[in-house]
């Protein structure tokens, strides 16, 4: 019975001082993080020029995944999937393995 004990006045004063000091420290940490990590830009639409570049580069690789294309060219993963599927439909790539989340392609060797 009785409930939770209330803090004393000195405890309340100490807690208030700590709260005043912490936001200043946290702000400085947040500012440092923002400065360190510049925002990455991803391409949402694909030019024909970039598509042709990807088509040429893919032929020299052993295996190709959408993640490799997305990170190398700075495009979205969904766009990388579309590019690889278009290259497959065109006959430049062969689908080797397909899972729930990713697809693995190899270049078609003539």
Describe the structure.
α3 crosses α4. Strands 1-2 form a two-stranded antiparallel sheet. The chain has 110 residues and is mostly helical. The protein has 2 domains: 30 residues; 60 residues, Arc Repressor Mutant, subunit A.
Short description:
The chain is mainly α and 110 residues long. The protein is built from 4 helices and 2 strands. It folds into 2 domains: 8-37; 48-107, Winged helix-like DNA-binding domain superfamily/Winged helix DNA-binding domain (Arc Repressor Mutant, subunit A).
Order of helices and strands: HHHHEE
Number of helices: 4
Helix content: 55-70%
Assembly type: single chain
Strand order of the largest sheet: 1-2
Count of discrete domains = 2
The stretches of 5 or more residues where confidence is low (pLDDT under 50) are none
- The H-level CATH homologous superfamily of the largest domain, spelled out, is Winged helix-like DNA-binding domain superfamily/Winged helix DNA-binding domain
Largest sheet: 2 strands, antiparallel
Strand content: 5-15%
| Mean pLDDT across residues | 85
Outline, from the CA principal axes?
A: elongated
Pfam families: Ribosomal_S25 (PF03297)
InterPro entries: Ribosomal_eS25
Family: Belongs to the eukaryotic ribosomal protein eS25 family.
Protein name: SSU ribosomal protein S25E
């Amino acid at each position: 019975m009785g409930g939770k004990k209330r803090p004393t006045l000195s405890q309340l004063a100490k807690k208030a001082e700590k709260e005043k000091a912490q936001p200043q420290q946290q702000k400085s940490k947040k500012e440092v993080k923002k400065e360190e990590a510049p925002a990455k830009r991803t391409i949402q639409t694909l030019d024909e020029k970039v598509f042709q570049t990807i088509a040429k580069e893919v032929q020299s690789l052993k295996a190709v995944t959408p993640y490799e294309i997305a990170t190398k060219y700075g495009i979205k993963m969904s766009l990388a999937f579309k590019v690889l599927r278009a290259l497959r439909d065109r006959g430049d790539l062969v689908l080797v393995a397909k899972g729930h989340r990713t697809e693995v392609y190899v270049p078609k060797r003539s």
